[in-house]
Amino acid sequence: MPPGNTPSHDESKPEEPTPGQAFSLENILSGDHENIEHPTAAKEALTSAGGWDEEIAYETVAQGFCVECEDQPAQVFCETCSDNFCEVCFAAQHRKGTRKRHATRPLSGPHDKKAKTEEAKPANGEAPANGDVMHVDEAADEDSDEELEQAVAEASSAKIDVVLSSQPTPGSAVGEWFVERAKFIPVRLTLEERKYLRLLEAALSVSEYTDKIDTIGFGLSKAKRIVHQIRELCAILSGLVLSADYKQGQELFQDRDFQSNEKFYQDIFELGRRHKIMNPDKMRSTYGKLIYILQDSQTPEVKDLLSFSCVKPIKTVYSVLEQHDALDLLRDDLVSIATKEIYSEGRSRREIQKDIKNKERAIETLAGKYARRGFSEEQVRQCLYSIGDNHAFLRTNRDPCERMIAYLKQYFHPAHPQDSKSSLAIKNGKGGARLTHDHSKQYAYVLQTLTLWREILHDMFHLWTLAEQDLLNENVPYRLRDTGQGLNRVQASPKTSRMMHAILNRAQRSIGSWVGSSAIHMGDHNVPNALMFIDKYSQVYRILLPICNTLAQIPRIAENPALRSYIDDDFGSPEGLTREILADFFRHGFDGSGAGNYFDAGSCIDGRLTSAWNWCSTLEKKRFFPIFLLTGFIGFDGEW
User: Fold this and answer.
1) Torsion sign, CA atoms 37, 39, 42, 47
2) Per-residue pLDDT tens over the stretch 201-218
3) H or E element that contains 481
4) Residue 79's pLDDT is what?
5) Cβ-count burial of 463 within 10 angstroms (0-12 exposed, 13-18 middle, 19+ buried)?
6) How far apart are CA 266 and CA 261, in angstroms?
């Protein structure tokens, strides 16, 4: 190397930051912050023109985990493929063809607890070894939640009957049903909390946090991006305090002591998350922003500077009752009466009024019985109302799945269709279909899909809790990636994924057989993170409920002579109209279509929902679309 190109001893040293450029909260929030960078960011990230977020090569699979999904413990070793698989992925990859004849052997060791099914129990009869929890970091050992392990164990045991009803029968012994459900039922917001909710929503609505942070541009390295995160986060925190308490906000602007307002921040962010879980239709444009703000606040660099965490556990019915030593309330037989939904369909006014009085009497009885010092009657009522809200959620979100299953069994035979109009057979390339199924296979495919959706929505509050734990876990980092639908935060979701595999296993056992792929996308370009997963499955009722409402209204509109003539001329009869709508939905709402390319659709767990959305987008082209309009249909976006 020529002497002129040899770096000097002083040049090879990293440049020491001057006191004015030191990485501190005071300097970051000052006007001159453009030259401040995080000191621990990787050097290559600073010099990369594309920024630190550009696509990186995947790491090798961790020892003891499935080579396919990479987040489940390996349970089977395929001697032909020389790879380790979990049971679900092995079954999906070796369903047919020559792979079906591959030689395998079960894996033994600390990672095979979930592999011990009824068909393959340990030879010595001992309980499987513990330790199958996936650890992203050594420090995350304490983060493995016991209730999830219990849920997975219950799902894997054929001896446990899963309660599928939205609520126990009134007057029956409720046992532990309410105790288990209450662990994941958020408490309804009080009037005072709703005031702060409006403040939070207003702050999130005007915030441009994700627009400024989730972007890959020239010069926006990881080090500078951390500085941007802290500045934007502090701006939101300061605005919230100033709006709630002007005097306290002025003090915050002077001394920058965010830690003194730790409880306020944790409470206001928690009530926003709690409100969203109970009301999936609310905060549609602000909840994602809230979660991403909290996700960034959990990063070590931000937490070190702020010296506190913005996140605290969701306030649930169980945690409130446990705090006040009142869990016996959930075991009281009156709870089923005090929290039941009162239906008006097909009932007289007298019957409805009688149920309302019984419910009010049960609520007041329980409030007087379990109220104590520090736990008022109003707080008891709030817990009971919250459980009632859960029943309403299940009725709106999960019951349409049961109604569609009932329609499927009522109008179609599992194996032998009456005629071509009753056949559910589909063929790849015909009518946009991407799958080829005969009638019996498509019937089973639709039935298992609706059953799986029902199981997911039954445990939606549990899944939502785990999704937030994954999203806000400081030991599970994310990275920005162009997934084909813009920049998204791609993050592994080990807890949500494990629970989904348990639910899938439960659905497969209830059906007895499985058609199509069992692959669950999580943390990839199809479903980048747990937030996207929750958003996908909270839309199921938007698809099914309008269809169910239209089908239920057909007998009513058929009472009109003119409309009855139209139905008879075009569809033969009201029953023929119902059958045609159902047949079209069961064929082309479950045909593997809807993705932007050939590889991202099909029969995987998430592809089934994509196909149903694709059918909704083509409804206006169907010949029975006028019937939907006559029954009051407006759209699939929550308006009906």
Assistant:
1) positive
2) 888 888 887 887 787 664
3) strand 479-482
4) 87
5) buried
6) 9
pLDDT value, residue 479: 86
Cβ contact 248:261 at 8 Å: yes
Total number of residues shown for the chain: 640
Q: Is the pLDDT of residue 123 over 50?
A: no
Do residues 52 and 58 lie in contact, with contact meaning Cβ atoms separated by under 8 Å? Answer: no
Letter for the amino acid at 264?
F
Query: What is the phi-psi region of residue 70: left when phi exceeds 0, alpha when psi lies from -120 to 50, beta otherwise?
Result: left
Task: Look at the block and give the residue holding tokens 């005007």.
Answer: 206
Residue by residue, DSSP assigns 601-617 as -SSSHHHHHHHHHHHHH
CA-CA distance, 640 to 54, in Å (whole number)? 43
Cα distance between residue 525 and residue 178, in whole Å: 38
Distance, CA of 509 to CA of 461 (rounded, Å) = 22
Residue 240: CB partners within 8 Å, gap ≥ 6? 199, 200, 203, 264, 265, 268
SS3 218: coil
The amino acid present at 343, given as its one-letter code, is: Y
What tokens does 421 get?
């109009």
> Is the pTM higher than 0.85?
no
Provide DSSP, 555-610: HHHTTSHHHHHHHHHHHSSHHHHHHHHHHHHHHHTSSS---SSGGG-SSSHHHHHH
pLDDT digits (tens, 9 = 90+) for 335-365: 888 998 888 877 889 999 998 999 999 999 9
Residue pLDDT, tens place only, 379-392: 999 999 999 999 99
Partners of 375 in the β-ladder: 372
Q: How many CB atoms lie within 10 A of CB 183?
A: 16
CA separation for the pair 237, 486 (Å, rounded): 28
Tell me which residue of 295, 587, 342, 269 sits closest to 446, measured CA to CA.
Answer: 587
Q: CA-CA distance, 350 to 481, in Å (whole number)?
A: 59
Q: pLDDT tier at 32 (50, 70, 90 boundaries)?
A: low
- The 3-state DSSP class for residue 99 equals helix
Contact 316, 185 (CB under 8 A): yes
